[in-house]
């Protein structure tokens, strides 16, 4: 994408039928630090890499609780993300107030998408420069959506956005078929490993990442640093120990799919060194 | 010319009585569970007490539709506060919010007589008492509702500290223990229900006896909520239907 005469404002089409301003907004998402999400039948896990401007400053908040049953991870212009989170919270509170029940995730993402679309069709506005991974639970089960600055939204089993997200996506693509039956612990482990993929060899520590979970009977909450570090330590320790540890968990879920997951988890650490890290 | 009376009133009084007593490190809030209209009983099992925040409980008598609307509004405002401040609202903060919310409807008030009970920022018991339009005061004890005229003088006799003009300044909170305060509350309702038809009836048990089972099945209850550093504890006293 190069600078051209059709990209000055969002209400100008290019001859090829593209809205460049919207596409540039999507570029802004790719510049933000990585955020990933994955879901099973009963839980959704969000994770993100914490990027700080300098050693002196604190890191950006990228995961927001929207309601007990919904949370969101953002990548891109975090200010836009903050504003949209406030909107989502407000919508959830108003819906609960009127209907005395939680706002279904699908409804919320549509409202978000419509809000984003408005900004693609007004000459005095600009598109939101933030991508949102919306994780939530409703009567139909666990959901993960990705909301785009273009006003599009898609449902995913697992997804990653932001810089170096391709590495995480590759990791997730290899294992997503097992996620449905994953236990909560395995899902979190997979999230941490996906985050690790985006770090390009840097050691994974709880100080540079944030993980949040929502599940059946478990309101959305961000895991504290200590818990995350313990989880990182438990999977970092050894690939072989993983197998027997994972199996009893998986046995509760049952099925060869889970065992397949455990086996591939054993294989993955060995692969780590071999798999190329995408930039 | 005779005064014109409206054909319809937006308000109704559903009766009931609420009491709250603050202690050194606890707060007892209680209300009967009878909801009435006129001389009829609508429910024997309606709770007038709601937990607004971890350290704050509100009991309201009056028009329960307005009470419900007020409770919902405060709950929503508390959620917003939590999102913005990343913590629960303190009882004094909720106290101010309630006052502002009530005054907001100064010219079409919530027909709700409230008593807020909880722990302040130092962990001491606190009670705030309100009128329908938000005038409020922090006190050591209070009652509101149909039985308050019977209960308040009794509490004054039992709990009122000597003149506030005395030095050193006396704390408004009672020196009673938590168990003594709960007993005092039960005694309050024992008296009120003898003479106030809108407050649920009562059969006095000796404090040592556990809640009676078998003899009274269903019927009005007295709901007692105790808030202390260990959290919130709810207790029901079975009452006789009469």
Briefly summarize what is shown.
Chain A is α+β, with helices and mostly antiparallel strands. Chain A has helices at 20-31, 78-99, 105-118, 165-179, 184-198, 225-236, 239-253, 256-272, and strands at residues 35-39, 43-49, 63-67, 70-76, 130-138, 141-147, 153-155, 158-161, 209-215, 218-222. Chain B starts with 16 loop residues before the first strand and ends with a strand.
SSE layout:
The complex is a heterodimer of chains A (279) and B (242).
Chain A: H1 20-31, E1 35-39, E2 43-49, E3 63-67, E4 70-76, H2 78-99, H3 105-118, E5 130-138, E6 141-147, E7 153-155, E8 158-161, H4 165-179, H5 184-198, E9 209-215, E10 218-222, H6 225-236, H7 239-253, H8 256-272
Antiparallel strand pairs in A: 1-2, 1-8, 2-9, 3-4, 4-5, 5-6, 6-7, 9-10
Helix pairs in contact in A: 4-5, 7-8
Chain B: E1 17-22, E2 26-32, E3 35-37, E4 40-43, E5 49-53, E6 56-62, H1 64-85, H2 91-104, E7 112-119, E8 125-130, E9 136-139, E10 141-145, H3 148-159, H4 178-195, E11 221-228, E12 231-238
Antiparallel strand pairs in B: 1-2, 1-10, 2-11, 3-4, 5-6, 6-7, 7-8, 8-9, 11-12
Helix pairs in contact in B: 3-4
